[in-house]
Design brief:
The chain is globular. Helix 1 runs antiparallel to helix 5, helix 3 packs antiparallel against helix 4 and helix 4 packs parallel to helix 6. The protein contains eight helices and no strands. The chain has one domain. It has 195 residues and is an all-alpha fold.
Length: 195
C-alpha cells in the first residue's frame, strides 16, 4: 500500500505542475441570485469538491458534520469578499484544482483528522473557491445576491454529500471511498485538461 504522505505529495505535485484550469473568471452572468446559485452546479470542480466536503464530514461524523461545511461556506464567503475588493490571493486556480484532488483523497483514504485540522484544510480550499467567485462579480454590481446564491447551492451540495455518506452507512463506506477516488481522478483530469 502506498503511504498516505507519498500519495498526497504526488497528487499535489501533479496539480501544481499542470496548467491552471481558468474555470471561473468571466464565465456567465454574476450579478443575480440565480447566477450565483447555478454556478456551483455548473462545473465538475465545484460539484465534486462540495459533495466531497459532505462525504468527508459524514465519514468523520459527530461535530464535523456541521463544523466542516459551516467552515467551508464561511471562509468561502470571506474569500468572495476579498475577490470583490480586488485583494489578490496567490495560486487561486491551482488551489482550486488541488482541492478537488486533495478532498477526493481525504475521502478515498477515509483520513480521520481532528475536527480543527479539517476546518483548517477546508478553510484554505474554501478561500480559493470564494476568491474565484468574488472576482467574477462586476464592479457595478453589489454581489450580495450572487454570493447568497452560491452559498446556498454550496450548502445543498454539502448536504447531498452528508446524506449520501450517512445513507451509505458504515457497511457501505467503501462506496463513499470509491466516490472520493473518482473525485481525485476528476481533479487530475481537470489539471491536465482531459476532463
Amino acid at each position: 500500500m502506498i503511504p498516505v504522505k507519498r500519495l498526497c505529495l504526488s497528487a499535489l505535485l501533479l496539480v501544481t505542475a499542470a496548467m491552471p484550469a481558468y474555470a471561473h473568471v468571466g464565465i456567465g452572468t454574476t450579478s443575480s441570485f440565480t447566477a450565483g446559485f447555478m454556478h456551483p452546479l455548473s462545473g465538475l470542480d465545484h460539484m465534486t469538491v462540495m459533495i466531497a466536503v459532505g462525504l468527508w464530514a459524514a465519514l468523520k461524523g459527530g461535530k464535523a458534520m456541521w463544523a466542516w461545511p459551516a467552515a467551508f461556506v464561511g471562509v468561502m464567503l470571506a474569500g468572495a469578499a476579498l475577490g470583490m475588493a480586488h485583494v489578490p490571493v496567490p495560486f487561486v486556480e491551482p488551489g482550486i484544482l488541488a482541492s478537488v484532488v486533495a478532498l477526493g483523497l481525504l475521502v478515498a483514504l477515509a483520513v480521520d483528522l481532528p475536527v480543527s485540522a479539517g476546518v483548517a484544510i477546508l478553510g484554505l480550499f474554501a478561500l480559493f473557491h470564494g476568491h474565484a467567485h468574488g472576482t467574477e462579480v462586476p464592479e457595478n454590481a453589489g454581489g450580495l445576491d450572487y454570493m447568497a446564491g452560491f452559498a446556498i447551492a454550496t450548502m445543498l451540495l454539502h448536504a447531498i454529500g452528508i446524506a449520501a455518506g450517512l445513507g451509505l452507512g458504515t457497511r457501505f463506506r467503501r462506496v463513499a471511498r470509491i466516490a472520493g477516488a473518482a473525485c481525485a481522478a476528476i481533479g487530475v483530469g481537470l489539471a491536465f485538461g482531459v476532463v
